[in-house]
Amino acid sequence: METNLQNLKQTLKKYWGYDDFRYPQAEIMRAILSGKDCLIVMPTGGGKSLCFQLPALLQEGLTLVISPLVALMENQVQELRSKNLPAGILHSEVSKFDRKQTLEVLKSQQLRLLYLSPETLLSPPIWQIISNPDIKINGLILDEAHCLAQWGESFRPAYRRLGTIRPLLLNHKPSDTKISIASFTATADINTQKTIIQSLQLSNPEKFLISPYRDNLQIQVKTIWTPKGRKQELIQYIQRKSKQSGLIYVRTRKDSHELANLLNQEGYPNQAYHGGLSSDIRRKIENDWLQERIKFVVCTNAFGMGINKSNLRWIFHYQAPLLLSEYIQEIGRGGRDGKLTEAVTLISEATGFLNPEDKQRRQYFLNQQIKLYQEAQRFIQQIPKQGNIEALSREFNNPNISLYLSILNSSQQLRWIDPYHYQLTINNPQGSIELLIKQQKKLTQETSQYLTTKTCRWHFLLSAFGFPPSQNFRCTKCDNCQ
């Protein structure tokens, strides 16, 4: 379906009130409307949601938006409904009444956009409705696509089963049906891009890769020598920034509570936030922060994805990030209004003799990841060559089953026949897992190199994410350039 720019602009003006697009919004929309698969890597705050919302309105039928974040889905659907646009939402926290209503309008084909979590999309009742031959589906939008490749708190095992959704849907639809897939993420290095394309079975995707460089982000890495020095550095910083909105990142749930308590005792009201809190508590903290009832949150990397606050002035990494992909997302949440924003990271002195905190934490997380890989390797010896995920969940009382299957899938020892059934494809099991471990070590090492580099920090980041600047590029904004 070819749509002219004028038509896109008219719809933009009518519903969103803007006169024109930011590059490459219009180009992405035209690719989506012409039925192409797309891979879009666009920095935080680049206007990604508009790229799929607007095309959905110009098409007959339904666009499925798969997102891992309840807060993000709810914000976007609320916004669309306030414009009287036909959007619905389904996830595990939706009330029975709202769920029933959404299913009714879905069956009667009154929706243009349906937001779902990956787990909800794969649930049998939803699957039964969307696979009905009469329900016209135009496309699948996969938001936060790095969740299928980035290990850690943001990893979602269900994402790795989504590559089989399209072929399975097409089996149930009229023979001339076309369903395109567009995957969106704020960060994806070259390996992550490959993983997304392979895992989602994208067909010759059109790529829109936008540099994560933001010239209003001032980066600084400070070496501290003692645990006490770390606390003092943070408190002094907050004293200077107490009237501005900020985020403090730590690496564990326990640390978020301990540090939040310490800062509350010091007279700086704040909340601890992590993925282990109930959804009600998480929503309340997000709103308190967005409404500036509290100026900052002490959080793990579970906070911030999809949360839009234009005047976030500072991001403080109290503990060093483990992966550059997490780090660049976390700092990318600052300064969306274009004004100067600081991103400060504290690191222990490099040798680890005087203060081994960072070294120990890095090693602990790496060991946890390796342990998980090795458990998956043992798990493959215990399961049938073909089977389904439900039967395995009943047979093995282990909360990590879907994680193990994802690891085996990413090491190419298992393929999904459909979202529920797998088949083992064992080539060289030990070698495959060793390769994953090697990759994880390399990523950890890359973060250490970044934190201790003496060269331009933006130069390092851009090169790591596949946007190498010219040799003489200097950002003039990082501590090394200054």
Layout of secondary structure:
Blueprint: H1 5-16, H2 25-33, E1 38-41, H3 48-58, E2 62-66, H4 70-82, E3 87-90, H5 96-107, E4 113-116, H6 118-121, H7 124-130, E5 137-142, H8 165-172, E6 180-185, H9 190-200, E7 206-209, E8 217-224, H10 227-241, E9 245-249, H11 253-265, E10 270-273, H12 279-290, E11 296-299, E12 312-317, H13 324-331, E13 341-348, H14 357-379, E14 386-388, H15 389-395, H16 401-410, E15 414-416, E16 421-424, H17 429-452, H18 457-464
Helix pairs in contact: 2-3, 14-16, 14-17
Shape: globular
Roughly how many Å is the radius of gyration?
23 Å
Q: Count of helical segments? A: 18
The whole-number mean of residue pLDDT values reads 91
Helix content: 40-55%
Query: What is the number of strand segments?
Result: 16
Which runs of at least 5 residues are low in confidence (pLDDT < 50)?
A: none
Strand order of the largest sheet: 3-4-2-5-6-1-7
Structural class by SSE content: alpha/beta
Q: Quick one: biggest sheet?
A: 7 strands, parallel
Please report which band the strand proportion falls in: under 5%, 5-15%, 15-25%, 25-35%, 35-45% or over 45%: 15-25%
Oligomer: single chain
